[in-house]
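Inputs:
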Amino acid sequence: MNWQEVLSENGYRVSEPRRLVMQLLENSSQPLTPLQIYSALLQSGNTLGMVSVYRALELLTELCLVCLVYNSDGSPGYVLGMGGHHHHILCQSCHKAASFAGSEDLSALIEKVEADTNYRVKDHLLQLYGICPACQEKQSVRQEGN
Amino acid sequence: MNWQEVLSENGYRVSEPRRLVMQLLENSSQPLTPLQIYSALLQSGNTLGMVSVYRALELLTELCLVCLVYNSDGSPGYVLGMGGHHHHILCQSCHKAASFAGSEDLSALIEKVEADTNYRVKDHLLQLYGICPACQEKQSVRQEGN
DNA sequence: AAATTAATTGAAAAACATTATCAATAAGGG
DNA sequence: CCCTTATTGATAATGTTTTTCAATTAATTT
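Outputs:
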């Protein structure tokens, strides 16, 4: 099921601003802020209002078509959603985002925390930060050059 | 080492706004936004500027005396830092925060992600959301009452 | 204990981000 | 192709964070 169908099946229209936002995120490897999205779309010759970007992101996030992530400096950004439960890892150098699936690996941790704190765990936020393959490459080349 | 010493040893003064913010966070079980901190302090008869709250939080966060956390709705809040590496679990009902230590439990997950994505993992953001013991109690009481 | 000095504060303004309002527009069903 | 209604975009309102700078205050020196 593509994103157009998700919109339709939930009673929403496939409008121009929504199309533009999805298209841009589909072609972006890194999280973008609402302002970055707005600016990029204007610069590529499109015309839409900032407000529509906010509204599109709100709706698309609700439908899990896009995800809100936090950069390592705490600033928020939006990336394409992958459907199903997953998490993101962000490159601290070029900001490229990758996703990885599942939460089975957290179940041991969660059980331990439930035992320790007596909280009942319902949900979680997990993001990893690191260096992507391409930036590792660049770094080692620079090192060799010295 | 208490927070006053941490400030001094890093060349910062123990000023009134910083004292007020720390004092409030020490007595709050839930994350507070800058505005909530400012309002609470004014209401308890103190006098300080909003700007000082922002500045105090920025510095205290840098020194790891307070931590920035994300509520399950995505809004940010500040809680007392615990020193050393730790994470937080937040109650979805009363917003009470608890902390749990360590990241050893994540190492298996991290290795797996490194293998899958070829990223080199450097850091992570982990928060759990759930129901605290007191709110579990309340819920089961209400249930029985029906 | 008073004087000195430099970090820190607070008020105001500026900059920036988000949300509300509402008439005009456009998507999708008939 | 028309009709209905969700959606848009412009404007304004609201809210948040940062900048600026003279006045204040914490901590050090005398």
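Remarks. Residues 50-62 of chain A form the longest helix (13 residues). The mean pLDDT of chain A is 94.
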